[in-house]
């Protein structure tokens, strides 16, 4: 079983639409994992028919029991996150600012502080309408540990793909280069970078590729909206050549992307004659490398 | 007043709105623009400024002092992030997991974990007429964006407290990084697009900003694609629609070259003016 991660650096380059199209192409051969856990959208296209949901706990947050608190203020003085402040003579923890280090809990002289484990999200093992299994998740608002939830989604999806004897685990990553992206990349066999022919898209591609290189994972690139700026598109292709990234496909600017999303369809369902050949060609190129 | 431009979904036009709004406003008054999308900052593609200074940003992480350590193991038992590990007669420090809470360093009975500085990223400060522009860029390979965002805001408070109008370009999403970037704002502009993806992620962003109790409004980008559901949602929820940006291939082309929309398309000026007027009315 090979693990393919789709990332983009920049948001809004068409990553999820492309991932859904590949999921459609490989619906009998792959398990799908949506690892963009703070803006998970694949379920809006792959419509789960049935789901098994589980709570995800990770990390702690401090709370102060008012009756036991002697208002000495030691907790507030050591908190590096400015999460504790006096309110009407008693100390209170701002739950959104608390990073769960437990320093206050360890030094409170009256034992007024507790550190309950936090439910930071949910993950779901779903049967998608295409037939393939979709593992997706939702991180709670403002939650930390998105990287840990990504790792959980990936480990559940890996297990599922092996159990179902699938050839591929297809992972939709998140934008950026931080913890959820790093967690998405860990253990991957192949990376598909989705960019667009704009200065911003190119700049973000370069930063995310610098990150991928540290993991020593081979990569291919899809340039979306390639005809928007032919000059940048050429520069991107020169960069791909220099960095030994496979130039997988160039996709022209197309209103089919938002139209398909609005209809809850994959690109293939939106316009079979245009998109099936494009994605079949991509699929074959990926299989060849694998 | 400080305005943050944010969105749940990536690629909905945060940077486009932030740079156009900042340069448009700077035609009449001093403005500070901060690019706090530290993982992938792009503001400098659009702002043709003169570089004034570059500042390295650090945070503090523990360093193991082997000669002082008694190997009691308390640090590794106490660290909530598993950033310290006692392996045989060695204490391993993993800076990528550390949140710089200082607990290990200050509670170590042998004072064997002094804090040392570690690079987080770089702040570039540019000037462009009335505009002061600060771009904050995270070192590649670092996991946590929030500490750099927090340090960048401290820098702005120290250096630019005299600038009355400040705009922040936030990271996408609704997790800790987005929260760090918007929490000091007086007003948040959420930008989205009229598709089910855009609406789904806007809904999450709205819930996040509501938890922070910051007034906010919505700009709909790529108006004309998708469907009307986003407008129905805004009406149902009583959320103000600040302005729309039409879906035009020409806009995508100008953006792709790093160009400014309000200079080429008059109706964008009207939209920016609406956003500014509303935000300033809040104060």
Description:
The complex is a heterodimer of chains A (290) and B (283). Chain A is an alpha/beta fold and 290 residues long. Chain A folds into 2 domains: 2-58 and 120-289, Rossmann fold (3-Layer(aba) Sandwich), CATH 3.40.50.300; 62-115, Alpha-Beta Plaits. Chain A has 11 helices and 13 strands. Chain A has helices spanning 15-25, 43-46, 74-78, 103-107, 146-163, 179-185, 199-215, 230-242, 256-263, 267-270, 272-289; strands at residues 2-7, 30-34, 50-60, 63-64, 84-87, 90-93, 113-114, 117-127, 133-139, 168-172, 190-196, 219-224, 246-250. Chain A has a 9-stranded mixed beta sheet, sandwiched between helices. A two-stranded antiparallel sheet of chain A has the order 4-7. A two-stranded antiparallel ribbon of chain A has the order 5-6. In chain A, a hairpin with a 2-residue loop joins strand 5 (84-87) and strand 6 (90-93). A 9-stranded mixed beta sheet of chain B has the order 3-6-7-2-8-1-9-10-11, sandwiched between helices. A two-stranded antiparallel sheet of chain B has the order 4-5. Chain B folds into 2 domains: 2-58 and 120-282, 3-Layer(aba) Sandwich (Rossmann fold); 64-113, Alpha-Beta Plaits, CATH 3.30.70.20. Chain B is elongated, with a radius of gyration of 22 Å. Helices cover 36% and strands 27% of the residues of chain B. With 283 residues, chain B is α/β, with parallel strands linked by helices. The longest helix of chain B is centred in the C-terminal third of the chain and has 17 residues, at 196-212. Chain B has 11 helices and 11 strands.
CATH architecture of the largest domain in chain A: 3-Layer(aba) Sandwich
State the shape of chain A. elongated
CATH class of the largest domain in chain B: Alpha Beta
What general form of chain B does the structure show? elongated
What's the helical proportion of residues of chain B?
Answer: 25-40%
In terms of quaternary structure, the protein is: heterodimer
Largest sheet of chain B at a glance? 9 strands, mixed
The separation of the N and C termini of chain A measures: 10 Å
> Looking across the biggest beta sheet of chain A, what order are the strands in?
3-8-9-2-10-1-11-12-13
Q: Return the domain count of chain A.
A: 2
Find the CATH topology of the largest domain in chain A. Answer: Rossmann fold
Parts with pLDDT < 50 across at least 5 consecutive residues of chain B: none
Share of residues in strands of chain A: 25-35%
Radius of gyration of chain A, whole Å: 22 Å
């Amino acid at each position: 079983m090979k693990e393919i991660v789709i990332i983009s650096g920049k948001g809004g380059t068409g990553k999820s639409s492309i991932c859904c199209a590949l999921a459609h192409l490989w619906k009998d051969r792959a398990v799908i994992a949506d690892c963009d856990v703070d803006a998970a959208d694949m379920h809006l296209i792959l419509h789960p028919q049935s789901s098994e949901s589980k709570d995800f706990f990770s990390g702690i947050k401090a709370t102060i029991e008012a009756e036991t608190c002697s208002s000495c203020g030691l907790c507030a003085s050591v908190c590096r996150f400015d999460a504790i402040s006096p309110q009407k003579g008693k100390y209170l923890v701002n739950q959104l600012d608390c990073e769960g280090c437990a320093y206050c809990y360890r030094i409170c002289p009256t034992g007024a502080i507790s550190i309950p484990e936090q439910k930071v999200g949910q993950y779901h093992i779903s049967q998608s309408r295409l037939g393939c299994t979709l593992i997706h998740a939702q991180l709670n608002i403002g939650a930390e540990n998105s990287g840990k939830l990504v790792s959980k989604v990936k480990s559940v999806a890996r297990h599922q793909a092996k159990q179902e004897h699938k050839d591929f685990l297809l992972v939709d990553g998140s934008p950026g280069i931080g913890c959820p992206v790093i967690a998405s990349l860990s253990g991957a066999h192949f990376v598909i970078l989705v960019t667009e022919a704009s200065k911003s898209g190119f700049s973000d591609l370069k930063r995310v590729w610098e990150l991928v290189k540290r993991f020593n994972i081979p990569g291919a690139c899809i340039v979306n909206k390639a005809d928007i700026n032919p000059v940048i598109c050429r520069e991107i292709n020169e960069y791909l050549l220099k960095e030994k990234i496979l130039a997988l496909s160039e996709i022209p600017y197309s209103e089919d992307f938002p139209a398909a999303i609005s209809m809850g369809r994959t690109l293939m369902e939106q316009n079979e004659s245009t998109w099936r050949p494009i994605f079949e060609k991509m699929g074959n190129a990926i299989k060849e490398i694998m | 007043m400080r305005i943050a431009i944010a969105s749940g979904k990536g690629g909905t036009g945060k940077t486009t709105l932030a740079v156009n709004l900042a340069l448009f406003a700077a035609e009449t008054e001093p403005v500070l623009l901060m690019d706090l999308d530290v993982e992938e900052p792009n503001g400098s593609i659009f702002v043709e400024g003169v570089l004034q200074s570059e500042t390295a940003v650090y945070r503090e992480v523990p360093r193991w002092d082997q000669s002082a350590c008694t190997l009691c193991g308390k640090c590794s038992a106490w660290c909530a992030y598993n950033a310290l590990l006692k392996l045989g007669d060695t204490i391993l420090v993993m800076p990528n997991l550390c949140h710089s809470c200082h607990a290990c360093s200050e509670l170590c009975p042998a004072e064997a974990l002094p804090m040392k500085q570690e690079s987080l990223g770089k702040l570039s400060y540019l000037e462009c007429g009335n505009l002061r522009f600060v771009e904050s860029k995270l070192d590649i390979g670092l996991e946590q964006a929030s500490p750099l965002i927090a340090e960048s805001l401290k820098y702005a408070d120290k250096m630019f407290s005299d600038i009355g109008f400040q705009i922040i370009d936030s990271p996408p999403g609704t997790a800790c990084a987005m929260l760090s970037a918007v929490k000091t704002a007086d007003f948040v502009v959420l930008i989205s697009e009229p598709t089910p993806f855009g609406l789904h992620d806007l809904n999450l962003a709205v819930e996040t900003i509501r938890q922070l109790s910051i007034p906010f409004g919505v700009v709909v980008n790529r108006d004309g694609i998708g469907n009307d559901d986003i407008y129905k949602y805004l009406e149902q929820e009583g959320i103000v629609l600040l302005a729309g940006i039409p879906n035009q291939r020409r806009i995508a082309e100008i953006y792709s070259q790093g160009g400014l929309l309000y200079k080429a398309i008059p109706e964008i000026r009207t939209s920016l003016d609406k956003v500014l007027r509303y935000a300033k009315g809040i104060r």
